[in-house]
Amino acid sequence: MTTISRRTLGLIALGGLAAPSLARAQAGPARNMSSFAMQHWQDHFEELGLGAIVADTTSRALHFWSGDGQTYRTYPTSVPISEELTKRGYTEIVRKKEGPSWTPTASMMERFPHYRPVGPGPDNPLGTHAMYLSWPAYLIHGTHDTRKIGRLSSDGCIGLYNEKIEELFGLCPVGTQVRII
Questions:
Q1: Whose CA, among 12, 80, 136, 171, lies 20 to 30 Å from 97?
Q2: Which of 40, 63, 144, 157 is catalytic?
Q3: 157 among known catalytic residues
Q4: Do the Cβ atoms of 95 and 66 come closer than 8 Å?
C-alpha cells in the first residue's frame, strides 16, 4: 500500500488549481517585465525611416526604434484622460524644444479659465523637453509631476519622466514617424 503525505497531497491539489491560472496568464499579447504589451515596428510602419515611435495608450508605454534598427527603447507614459482627448493615428515629429513654454489650448481655457501660460521651469507642465507633432497642440513631452506617469492624466499629450524625455529627445530627429494607438 502506497502512503501519500499530506504535503504531497496538498501540492497535487495546488497544482490542479493553478493550471487554469497558468493557462490564462499565457493568453493575450506578449508582455515584457514591466507588463507593457510588446510591439514590433513592422506591425505599424512599412520602414523605419529616420526612426519610429509607437505610443500605446492602452498599456501606457512608448516604444522607440532608431532609423538603423539598432536601438529600441520602451518608456512608461502618461496618456490622455479621456477618449475625447485621445487622438490616434499617424503623425511625425515636426519640432523639438529644450526648455519649452506652455500655453493652454482654447478648450483648456473654456474648462479652466484661470490657466495662464508658463515659461520654462519647475511649474511648466511640459517638463524639460518637448517634441511637437504635426497635429496642432499634440506633443510628446516631459513632466515635473512624476505621479502622472502610468496614468490617465493628460489633455491629449503623451508624457514621460523628464529623464526619459531627455533621452528620447536625443534619439529622435525631426521627421521621426509616430503612431498613437
A1: 80
A2: 157
A3: yes
A4: no
Question: Strand order of the sheet with strand 158-161?
Answer: 72-76, 61-66, 51-56, 177-180, 89-98, 129-133, 139-143, 158-161
Residue 12 has pLDDT above 70, yes or no: no
Q: Is the CB of residue 180 less than 8 Å from the CB of residue 158?
A: yes
Indicate the SS3 state at residue 143: strand
Q: If 0-12 CB within 10 Å is exposed, 13-18 middle and 19+ buried, where does residue 34 land?
A: exposed
| Alpha carbons 105 and 103: distance in angstroms, whole number | 6
Q: Which residues pair with 180 in a beta bridge?
A: 55, 89
Please write the tens of the pLDDT for every residue from 60-119: 999 999 999 999 999 999 999 899 889 999 999 999 999 999 999 888 899 999 999 999
pLDDT for residue 11 is more than 60? no
Question: Which residue out of 63, 129, 141, 172 is catalytically annotated?
Answer: 141
d(CA 166, CA 175): 17
Single-letter amino acid, residue 88: R
Task: Indicate the helix (H) or strand (E) that contains 15.
Answer: helix 6-26
Q: pLDDT at residue 14 above 60?
A: no
